């Protein structure tokens, strides 16, 4: 029979409590010694074994620590302490589902333990288990009904579960008593009252919320937030005249806030998406422009809904103001308008007219005075980006070079020149130009980062590292590790892509996994906010951060890195299946560091700054061999696929990647699910037919798969696609290079001499005129890579390169 703490000898009880305090102080080695001291006297004390295991887990002895904890639980299966500790260790290792189960077991032994309930509540919040969380929060309130974070947590849980009336009821029952609680001041009261008012709005009680807003005004410190809510609620109760006055007040506070202007228009019954309202909206905006002449938002807004002559007039105002001010971001602001072809053409005509006027008369046609010489330079700067957007790189390059001659000391000109060269396919020239711009202003972080990015695009990883570390802390022990610590995810992604192009798959995967680690950190950091925000009563910000965390993995850098990692793992799997496994690349320098890292100390020295050297932890796997030598490359790829399906399930590329993984894993029903998901999103996607054909081929090639299952799957495919073939799809889309590339890739995956020959023939013609505007630089590079994968002859590659060079004469990659 096991002993509880109270049954330990008096001295050991004191030692046990001391061990728990040492854990809180993070003195893990001392805590471990204390536990061992207890176990010498009482070797089978389950709770002490659990605590010992917890210390071991924090001292990089995780496997041994887990075993020790489990042994403690076997001795004391009903001990709430042992189960709580097991939950804490699982939580620290991000095994949240297991941690929740442990906390629930702990509560079976001690149902009123506030610490366990609080830990469980934080995890349930993290996992968005709101129904269960309501029960946990209710127990906490029952145990201590006056403690603000407990009842506020319950209100927030009702909010997140969509039970707004219950959330309001909880706050109303406790807000008066809250004023007397220690640590609660005017700021906390203000935040709580605004949160409650927001809940009333969410509950649809607009009139009640408006009346409440008037009542609480003297206690509100967030004046802007209060005014925004007032305008919003007045509009929702159809008091449009009063709402318009409230929005007018807000515009006076910030005339560049588009939401205020849009709200003001709505109060006047105007909608910028409704063409019939255009003239009335223009009249209102012109009135506001006279009141707020410095508002760039008011100047720009008409461009988003006007067309024809009205668009040109509005664009003329915006353009001349920006050119005279020398605003480099003018094209960036205008770029979203180019989605409308007519507007893009109109802007080009407008700026070409400016260029002629400034060249011939040094002034605009409606100006009486000569313009500064810089105006002509910025006009050429804009036009260079305009023609670069439309793919006329030679014309764009000539314009930007003229601008550089006129103003050779302007860094922005070189940055745009580098971008044009990049788009034209001359990445080496782009890198050199951007580096020249960097050297013009060595204190500019932005241009330094752009130079690093271009170096990585040029696959010069070593030079990129040297340049990147210039802006890191001088006392950083390991400068490369510092890049990871500051979470420079753009650098990790670009570095991974560079290694991938160089064929160093191990290091590429290492970078992509570091991106994954950064986003995991963003997500895991949320855990601490579940208690922090409840103590600080910052409820509106708390809800915002939870909503942000829900979509954090949809960030472009994460999505791109995840797809690249999946491609790398598929490449490793295919190599292994073909009997030619990939081997991680190890340079001489890394061999030396690895040898030092395996020494007794496990450390080496790196430069920490000028005249200073410090000890740094060695990267034990600098070449990413752990990823290359993983037991199952497909299992690793599947982890990324599952995250993408959860975060960006509406993106077609997600389901293409899922299909590639599931097909190789011979999970045919999941592969079919991926096809159906893709079709639901885009029933004309180029990958649909090739995916269906590949699935049929996979089924026919798998002799171990049950015949009835095969028949069922083929039947499902036949219902959706009929007798379509890759050749038929390509014939129906014979002017689309993306369709051809996907089809050729599928033929290569299926294999066979005939398919190989067909793919080679198509790819060699990738630059032919019939593909028109779909012959982008990226598509042609993909065609070249696929052609090389086919083992094509030099004449075929030469034919493709010659055609691509004609389309992109400045490109150095063909």
Automatic annotation (TrEMBL):
TPR repeat intervals: 80-113
Q: Does the keyword Repeat apply?
A: yes
- Look up the record and report any one GO term of the cellular component aspect: cytoplasm
Asked if the Swiss-Prot or TrEMBL record annotates the protein with the keyword Iron-sulfur, the reply is: no
Q: Which InterPro entries match?
A: NatA_aux_su, TPR-like_helical_dom_sf, TPR_rpt
Matches recorded under PROSITE patterns: TPR (PS50005)
Keywords, sorted A to Z: Repeat, TPR repeat
What is this protein's name?
A: N-terminal acetyltransferase A, auxiliary subunit
């Amino acid at each position: 029979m096991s002993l509880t703490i109270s049954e330990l000898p008096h001295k050991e009880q004191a030692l046990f409590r001391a061990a728990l305090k040492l854990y809180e102080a993070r003195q893990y080695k001392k805590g471990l010694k204390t536990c061992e001291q207890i176990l010498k006297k009482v070797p089978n004390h389950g709770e002490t074994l659990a605590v010992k295991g917890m210390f071991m887990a924090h001292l990089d002895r995780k496997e041994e620590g887990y075993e020790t904890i489990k042994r403690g639980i076997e001795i004391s299966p009903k001990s709430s302490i042992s189960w709580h500790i097991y939950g804490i260790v699982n939580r620290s290792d991000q095994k949240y589902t297991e941690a929740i189960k442990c906390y629930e077991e702990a509560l079976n032994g001690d149902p009123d333990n506030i610490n366990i309930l609080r830990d469980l509540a934080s995890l349930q919040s993290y996992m968005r288990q709101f129904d269960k969380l309501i029960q946990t929060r209710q127990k906490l309130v029952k145990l201590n009904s006056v403690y603000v974070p407990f009842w506020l947590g319950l209100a927030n849980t009702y909010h997140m579960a969509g039970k707004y009336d219950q959330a309001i009821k909880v706050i109303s029952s406790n807000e008066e008593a809250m004023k007397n609680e220690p640590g609660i001041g005017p700021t906390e009261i203000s935040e709580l009252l605004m949160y409650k008012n927001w809940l009333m709005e969410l509950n649809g009680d607009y009139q009640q919320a408006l009346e409440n807003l008037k009542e609480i005004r003297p206690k509100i410190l967030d004046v802007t937030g209060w005014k925004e809510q007032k305008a919003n609620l007045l509009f929702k109760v159809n008091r449009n005249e009063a709402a318009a006055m409230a929005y007018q007040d807000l515009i006076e506070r910030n005339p560049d806030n588009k939401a205020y202007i849009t709200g003001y228009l709505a109060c006047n019954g105007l909608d910028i998406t409704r063409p019939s309202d255009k003239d009335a909206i223009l009249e209102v905006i012109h009135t506001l422009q006279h009141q707020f002449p410095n508002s760039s938002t008011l100047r720009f807004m008409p461009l988003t809904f006007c067309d024809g002559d009205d668009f040109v007039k509005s664009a003329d105002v915006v353009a001349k103001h920006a050119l005279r001010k020398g605003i480099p971001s003018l094209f960036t602001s205008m770029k979203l308008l180019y989605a409308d072809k007519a507007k893009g053409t109109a802007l080009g005509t407008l700026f070409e007219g400016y260029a002629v006027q400034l060249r011939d008369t040094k002034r605009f046609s409606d100006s009486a005075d000569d313009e500064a010489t810089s105006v002509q330079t910025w006009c050429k700067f804009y036009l260079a980006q305009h023609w670069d957007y439309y793919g006329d790189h030679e014309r764009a390059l000539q314009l930007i070079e003229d601008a550089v001659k006129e103003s050779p000391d302007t860094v922005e000109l070189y940055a745009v020149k580098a971008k044009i060269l990049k788009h034209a396919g001359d990445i080496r020239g782009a890198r050199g130009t951007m580096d020249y711009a960097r050297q013009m202003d060595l204190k500019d972080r932005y241009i330094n980062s752009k130079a690093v990015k271009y170096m990585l695009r040029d696959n010069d990883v070593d030079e990129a590292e040297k340049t990147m570390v210039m802006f890191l802390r001088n006392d950083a022990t390991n400068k490369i590790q510092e890049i990871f610590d500051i979470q420079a995810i753009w650098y990790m992604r670009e570095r991974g892509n560079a290694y991938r192009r160089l064929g160093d798959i191990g290091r590429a995967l290492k970078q992509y996994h570091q991106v994954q680690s950064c986003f995991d950190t963003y997500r895991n950091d949320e855990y601490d906010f579940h208690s922090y925000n409840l103590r600080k009563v910052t409820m509106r910000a708390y809800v915002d951060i939870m909503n942000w965390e829900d979509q954090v993995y949809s960030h472009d850098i994460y999505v791109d890195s995840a797809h690249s990692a999946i491609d790398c793992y598929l490449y490793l799997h295919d190599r292994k299946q073909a009997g030619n496994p990939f081997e991680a690349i190890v340079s001489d320098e890394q061999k030396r560091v690895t040898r030092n890292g395996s020494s007794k100390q496990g450390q080496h020295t790196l430069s920490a700054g000028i005249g200073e050297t410090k000890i740094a932890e060695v990267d034990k796997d600098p070449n990413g061999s752990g990823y290359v030598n993983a037991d199952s490359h497909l299992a690793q790829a599947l982890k990324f696929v599952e995250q993408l399906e959860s975060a960006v399930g509406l993106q077609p590329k997600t389901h293409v990647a899922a299909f590639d993984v599931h097909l190789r894993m011979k999970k045919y029903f999941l592969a079919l699910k991926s096809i159906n998901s893709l079709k639901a999103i885009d029933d004309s996607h180029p990958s649909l037919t090739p995916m269906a054909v590949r699935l049929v081929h996979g089924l026919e090639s798998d002799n171990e798969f049950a015949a009835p299952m095969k028949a069922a799957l083929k039947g499902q495919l036949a219902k959706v696609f009929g007798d379509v073939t890759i050749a038929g799809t390509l014939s129906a889309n014979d002017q689309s290079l993306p369709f051809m590339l996907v089809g050729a890739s599928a033929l290569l995956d299926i294999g066979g001499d005939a398919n190989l020959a067909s793919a080679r023939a198509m790819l060699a013609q990738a630059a032919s005129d019939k593909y028109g505007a779909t012959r982008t630089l990226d598509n042609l590079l993909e065609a070249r890579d696929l052609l090389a994968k086919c083992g094509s002859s030099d004449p075929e590659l030469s034919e493709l390169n010659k055609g691509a060079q004609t389309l992109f004469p400045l490109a150095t990659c063909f």
